[in-house]
Amino acid sequence: MRFALFFLAEYANMIVVSSVVTTLFLGGWLPPFPNTRMLHFLYYIPSWMWFFFKSFAFLYLFIWIRATLPRYRYDQLMRLGWKVLIPLAIANLVITGVVKLLLM
To answer: What tens digit of pLDDT does each residue of 27-86 get?
Structure first.
């Protein structure tokens, strides 16, 4: 039973994330391509349908990418973090500091 609730919570989280992404980045309830005369029929579709369509399109993309990409083991993630991401972050800080110092 706990395993089922875990999956339910995981998919509920994906629905919430796709709704937030739709609201913040995809225009929420607004139809795509505003102010176009050729696509005037899009304005007859209710706004809640646009929101659900965009949310479920992003949810489909989310699930598809999640199922396609391989899962990393814990040791692979630690190696990636310590050997790749932290040196990149330090290099980014140094380069940003040098550019800021030279241009200001």
So the answer is: 999 888 877 778 888 888 899 999 999 999 999 999 999 999 888 899 999 999 999 999
Do 62 and 17 meet the contact criterion of CB atoms below 8 Å apart?
yes
| CA distances (Å), origin 72, targets 10, 37, 78, 88 | 18, 48, 10, 20
What single letter denotes the amino acid at residue 29? W
Strands (DSSP E) contained in the chain are none
The pTM assigned to this predicted structure is 0.69
Q: Say if residue 54 is exposed, middle or buried (CB neighbours under 10 Å; 0-12, 13-18, 19+).
A: buried
CA distances from 36 to 32, 41, 46 (A): 10, 10, 17
DSSP 34: T
Residue 73 CB contacts under 8 Å (≥ 6 apart), including other chains: none
